[in-house]
Amino acid sequence: MKAAVFHGPRDVRFEDIDKPQLEPGEVLVRIGACGICGSDLHTYRHGMFLQLGDPLESGRVLGHEFSGEVVEINGDVPGVSVGDRVTTVGMGGNAEFIRISADRAGALVPLDDSISYVEAATTEPLATSLHAANLGDAQDEETHVIIGAGIIGLGILQCIKARSNAKAIVVDLSDKRLAKAEELGADEIINARETNLVEALSGDVLDSENLLSQTSGGIDVVYDCAGMGKNFQGPSVLEQALAIVRQNGKVVVVAVFEQDVTVDFNVVIRKGVQILGSWAWEMDEFLESARLIASGEIDRKPLVSHTFALEDASKAYETQLVAEEAIKVVFTP
Hints:
Elements: E1 2-8, E2 11-16, E3 27-35, H1 38-46, E4 54-55, E5 60-61, E6 65-73, E7 85-88, E8 97-100, H2 102-105, E9 109-110, H3 117-120, H4 123-136, E10 143-147, H5 151-163, E11 167-172, H6 175-183, E12 188-191, H7 197-202, E13 219-224, H8 237-244, E14 245-253, H9 265-271, E15 274-277, H10 283-295, E16 304-308, H11 313-320, E17 328-331
Parallel strand pairs: 10-11, 10-13, 11-12, 13-14, 14-15, 16-17
Antiparallel strand pairs: 1-2, 1-5, 3-6, 3-8, 3-17, 4-5, 6-7, 7-9
Helix pairs in contact: 4-5, 4-10
């Protein structure tokens, strides 16, 4: 079968590999669409999170955000039939087919015929956004700031707007992504390349020796969807989030950090800030995300900026790396 095989940093190749063979209770799904996740990018750039890929004798197949059609079942799997259109998660979605293990077969979520495979492949990242939004718990009249307008940050924006009248401010370095945030209902957008975020949202002039020394902040919740890349320099997004959040506010950390971050915890203590880590989702959030897409309450189509065939795997990954060009890159085998 066709597959995009990861062999090392910046080395993904289109190859023919063996089609999966099913054990009892397992299901074979023909991939209709599979997105490139942020964690896939960390693997592609730096070789991080290798455990997230499906290992082969040489290399591994990445991809865990997918949808497709059930084409084979080994034995009796209740609630699942050949021909079902489904979405779920598993390792190895950058391929023509994927084997769903017996312990995951019960988590196959049926798709309404009105939902395309490409839309359905964004269910998993929406569930990640929904989990973060649930931690932030937006209330009417609050102000929430989302730093990082990739698929997760924009998904948080969609969740906030679908469930409250809270004001949402989106911050990024990419004009394209900020324009998309505005299209999706952001009340304000800030390009952090052009505007000092802390000064803009706290009204304080920064002390270059101590970023947080004079800042008080009036933001109820800040979502760090940017993290800190290996080559990033200057005050981290987490430090800036702590600067702008109000007394007893929340900072929800969603992004992955590629380098260590120094935080002055005296600020956390003094302001009474809750720092909440947000990783993945609970199954009820995955199901709710599928429902939100199916009902039309959240439209994911505007977030898919590029689609590629598996034959163009290397170009697809390189495209997803360029924030000014891409929001969500999806394989359509």
